[in-house]
Amino acid sequence: MTQRxxxxxxxxxxxxxxxxxxxxDRFTYGRHDPVLMSQAAKLSGLKxxxxxxxxxxxxxxRGFVLVIQxxxxxxxxxxxxLFGIAAAVRVGSAAGPSRTANDHVQLFMFYGLIALAPxxxxxxxxxxxxxNLLPEPTGIRLAFYGRWRRLDPLAARAHPAFGPFxxxxxxxxxxxxxxxVRSFEFLLAVPAVSQHGPAWATTIFHMMAFDVIAMNFLxxxxxxxxxxxxxxFPRMLLLAWSMDLLLQVAIAYRVSDAPHLxxxxxxxxxxxxxxxxxxxLISMAIWIPYLLLSERVNVTYRSRVAxx
Length: 308
Known about the structure:
mainly alpha; 72% helix; 2% strand
């Protein structure tokens, strides 16, 4: 067996070193690969398009929020007139025994409270959260996800992401539209029943009316808190969602205890309540991650930015 002759001056070591070194072409080839360069150019173009779209959305959302701030007081009389006419038509067209004047007063009292509840929530919240208020962030932190750096209130207001604009404007619109949608859904789904009706019918009417009154008030107050950039807004909205779910459960238990409840009515009411629960859960699934992770929400309502 022949032995390999010894190399001089460390030739074997140098050869081994060069064998272990990766080819420089393996690092430089990707820089000049036309396919990779094309993909990088497309990605850069996509980022530019998304940036322009985000800026355009932000500009439009600012205009939308300003329009809401200017027109909402003007819309209140139209809301009262429209809902009043719809309620009168509902009471006049409802089948049942002849009603006395007291019956009509009682029915219109409930419909009036439904119409006035969002106005009361809006006005009370506007008085509680004036526009010149500079609120401090809440002392107890509930949103723990992520690493954040605290901003003082003035620095937060000077940040480009401050304010209920961008995607937050969609949440503002959703809370505002929830009031008429829920109110007219009540008019269509729940018959106008006086105190002389069956116990199960009056129970459904009273419980569903209370649900609409309470939630109209809460969502209107949440709308103002979001509009005025109040740090309590995320917690207020979470409270409103929780109250909404609890009221659906309370209605189900209360109505199920009413005597002589017809099976078809129970089935229809169950579908209505299940639909309400589903809508609330979908809203929570969509908006809770946004409320936790959005830079705009954290700057506007928590006075903090990402620490990275």
